[in-house]
Amino acid sequence: MNRDEEQSLIEFPTPFPLKIMGEAGAGLEVTVVDIVCRHDPDFAVERMETRLSSGGKYVSLTCTVTATSRAMLDALYRELSAHPHIKYVL
User: Which of 13, 47, 52, 76 is the most buried if burial means most Cβ atoms within 10 Å?
Assistant: First the structure.
């Protein structure tokens, strides 16, 4: 166990939900799945939840990944947050 995992309140591996928001129609779902699968190859795409905003301009995606370490989560957050189609990652 590395130092970050010793200081974490999360026990790994664990299911970890991520909420990703961006503009609808920008290929967001495909982009998110590609990025998430790079970090969690066993990600269950069929369980991704999609919700369109009331005005239809934005979409939020909830992806529950299997987090194996804090470093994995940090790398996933960094890659998702850096993509221009993604506005927020929670």
Answer: 76
